[in-house]
Amino acid sequence: MTGATHGTPAVAEHVGTLDAPRSPYVRKKTTRGNYELYSWVFMRASGVVLVVLVFGHLFVNLMVGEGVKAIDFAFVGGKWSSPFWQIWDLLMLWLAMIHGTNGLRTIINDYAERDVTRGVLKGLLYLAFTIVVVLGTLVIFTFEPCPVGADPELLASFCTA
Length: 161
Hints:
CATH topology of the largest domain: 3 helical TM bundles of succinate and fumarate reductases
Oligomer: single chain
Distance between the termini: 82 Å
């Protein structure tokens, strides 16, 4: 190995040893892709979008109308009868789950020392992610705001009892 700019031989010739303090920096080629870079960028972008989604959700649910005391089955039924709010809540669910799963994946990679432990923890994490995303998506899109046989006082105003 020779120095990149001065043509002088570097002190370290074997893996695991250090180059001389004044030797020029030579970037080593890695075989890994840019997954971690894209993951880092995603975390920043999804964090910003999540702030907008969550504060929009809180504003509509807590500030508009009668506030928190109005949140009941009819309120949710009224919201989820609109495709706009279904997509809003779906985006919030998916982004929050992907954002959180990616963060926990990073923590597992940083702190789980054994490969087996890391694999088991990440497997459980991905299983929990899949269950929550699938069930949450099903709930959002199969929610029936006007169930048959329900108490008319609990239903949204647009339901015919």
